[in-house]
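Changelog-adjacent note: as of this version, every example in the card shows the full chain rather than a window. The one below runs 59 residues end to end.
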Amino acid sequence: MSRVLNDMGREYGNEAWLEAPGRFKEGAVIISEITNVIVAYLTGENYKTDEKLRVYALN
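Full-length structure tokens:
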């Protein structure tokens, strides 16, 4: 999706569409980090899991 928005943003000169791919990437990083916390919790490697979840809840 981000590639399509980037290509169309360039083609049509739409700045909002050009900014969207960066936001997708930011979201993907956060989702990956949250996934790692959940997996660590479920596998019993939950060192500081509660602390990390609180950080995401406050944002």
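Structural remarks: The chain has a mean pLDDT of 81.
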